[in-house]
Amino acid sequence: MSPSSNPFLRGYQNLRIDRSLCITYEDDCPPVWRPLHPSQAHLPDDQVALFPCVFSNDFALITEGQDIPEDLEAQCQTEGVVRTVVYGVSGDDFGQPVHVGDTYSEEAAREVVRQLSFETGFYSRCWEISSAHLTAEAGRFLAELADIATPSGFLFVAFRIPYSPAIGVKLIATPWTDANLQLVEGITAEQLRQEHRAKGMPESLVEVLHLAALADVRMLVFDADAAVLYGLPLYDDE
């Protein structure tokens, strides 16, 4: 299942920080951006910024005060000066890599990542969506589960909300990825899907629960008065 087909996914995924150097060289050439070679990745910013360097198409090496192996130096044919150090924040948006922005310290970059991250266990794990995303058959099936002790093998618990026609679902052992389900239950996501079908669960309920659980949603409420979630199928009343 591609990330772009799951409307429950929110925010950037796989946020990461990359340190790069803005390097100037010959007077009539625009600046270039290069990462430090891994052998110098330990150097703090104050031993990099405003220092002379050599660089190739792939990396840069600080030359002042550093011992550089001859084979590495031979790969760098251009001399320059590091004008500034930048920490770029990037991530994935529906499976596509995107550049989020640049900061001028690692601390600032980490704060950007913290602000943009949907941290598991804190927020953005509870959704209220229209019950029109379920067929009438699926709605009845879920209501019946809410009135009994939902079988543990379902990996969710259905419940009624007092003084409301809405029905809630508590999803268990999310995200429903192969890696996590193998660790927790010893099954794959497809095996869980087939188990749900084998127990008579209507397909519209199977699909919406698995999409939500794959996105690490923990609480899902179906309400006729709630908003429609763009990207999910809608079903007419039967």
UniProtKB/TrEMBL annotation:
Protein name: ABC transporter substrate-binding protein
Domain DUF5983 per the UniProt entry, residue ranges: 126-237
